[in-house]
Design brief:
Distance between the termini: 76 Å
Mean pLDDT: 79
Helix content: 40-55%
Structural class: mainly alpha
Low-confidence stretches: 5-18
Radius of gyration: 18 Å
Number of helices: 5
Order of helices and strands: HHHHH
Length: 127
């Protein structure tokens, strides 16, 4: 009986998270869920890269904050100032943490310390 109760609770949680995203259409151009805040995220993210990178990633608010802060610190993203909270709220709500489906992947991703070092590009030759 306990297993059955846990199953119903799990299915309820899955259904509620699917219905949360399903109540909004997906923008055919960006691929983003057109929920409140999507236009802000669309404009900010697409300034530097395709929004499909957003769609492929999932994380809680801390994950998204760390990712965006990295972009500010190292990739030239402007300070989000008063748009931090709406951006983080949208991303963590509609692209929140999900468990990896090991039926699709053969192993978990490598820890950052085990990944190869990023290669710096060659410096430009002076003219």
């Amino acid at each position: 009986m306990r297993v059955l109760n846990k199953l119903f609770i799990f299915l309820g949680l899955v259904a509620s998270s699917i219905s949360l995203a399903a109540e909004y259409p997906v923008d055919p151009k960006s691929g983003l869920i057109m929920a409140p805040g999507w236009e802000l995220v669309n404009y900010q993210c697409n300034a530097c890269h395709t929004s499909m990178i957003v769609v492929q990633n999932h994380g809680d608010k801390a994950f998204w904050k760390e990712t965006l802060q990295w972009m500010v610190d190292t990739q030239g993203l402007w300070d989000l100032s008063d748009t931090w909270e709406p951006t983080l709220s949208y991303l963590s709500t509609y692209y929140g943490q999900v468990e990896m489906d090991m039926a699709l992947f053969r192993r978990l991703p490598l820890e950052p310390s085990l990944q190869p070092a990023l290669v710096k590009p060659f410096p430009k030759e002076p003219k």
